[in-house]
Design goal:
Structural class: mainly beta
Number of strands: 11
Oligomer: single chain
Order of helices and strands: EEEEEEEEEEE
Largest sheet: 7 strands, mixed
Helix content: under 10%
Length: 120
């Protein structure tokens, strides 16, 4: 069974940093691209970032480019999202996902999410 488990969310002040983790099981991480998505209250889920199986040429939403960095450690079956210079508008539940089209912003398998709250 494919399982993705997010962790690392919490409360942080604007301008601060947070690192999210996505631990994968049931898949060989090196054979799968992984994406991060987020959903704020009352809004649809949106694409944040995705990383290829090779780790090269990651994709980022314009809203996070230059502030967030996605990386992977295939030996640990884990993908990370380093979030710097956080803004209040980054407040959301963050999900990791995988799927054939995840590099294009579409996930098929999802984690349970981790809450990120950025205070002003």
């Amino acid at each position: 069974q494919v399982q993705l488990v997010e962790s690392g969310g919490g409360l942080v002040q604007a301008g601060g940093s947070l690192r999210l983790s996505c631990a994968a099981s049931g898949i060989i991480l090196s054979m799968n691209a992984i994406g991060w998505f987020r959903q704020a209250p009352g809004k649809e889920r949106e694409f944040v970032a995705a990383i290829r199986r090779t780790g090269g040429s990651p994709n980022y939403a314009d809203s996070v480019k230059g502030r967030f960095t996605i990386s992977r450690d295939n030996a640990k079956n884990t993908v990370y999202l380093q979030m710097n210079s956080l803004k209040t508008e980054d407040t959301a539940v963050y999900y990791c996902a995988t799927g054939q089209r995840v590099m294009f912003g579409r996930g098929d398998y999802w984690g349970q999410g981790t809450q990120v709250t950025v205070s002003s």
